[in-house]
Amino acid sequence: MAVTAVALQTLHRIHQQLSDLKDRCERGPRRVRARRHTVTNMQQQLDQAKQQVQEAKIAADQKQLDLKSIENKISDWKTRLNSCSSNKEYQALLEQIAAAEMAGSVLSDEILELLEKIDTLAAEVTTAEANLETTTVALTVVTQEVTDESEQIAADICRLEDELQTAEDSLPADFRVDYLR
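The structure assignment produced for this chain is given below.
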């Protein structure tokens, strides 16, 4: 009976070690998948940040075109001031010029805000690129670790399976049937 108890303890230890090794072997690919998912998320964040910068640049360019158009209108109205035939027409043009200059001033402020936003977004793009690079390097490191570790774990599993077979063979024949069940 003492031999059987020692054999069962050995079998139990081997089964626990095998279970732990198999869990570690399965955990490796999950770690790699998690890192790949993180890299994908970082890439999406980078793409989104670049898209926001592009949209802000387009909006700023459009507002600059609008400002240039307003400036051209003001210039045209100022040249028409000299050819006004009545005081009423002259005052109307002056009011239009004043309103356009006010609109141009507001537009200039909006353009400056957009340019500041572009600078902020460009900094976010730089940060996102650095995060992506760091995460990509981490993925490479984890992939290499998992590859190296999986080779070692596979060797340990083979060794433990051999030990398990030897330990199972050492069980008494009448007890082996109950053990296998």
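Interim note for the steering committee: The helical segments are 2-81, 87-169, 173-180. The mean pLDDT is 88.
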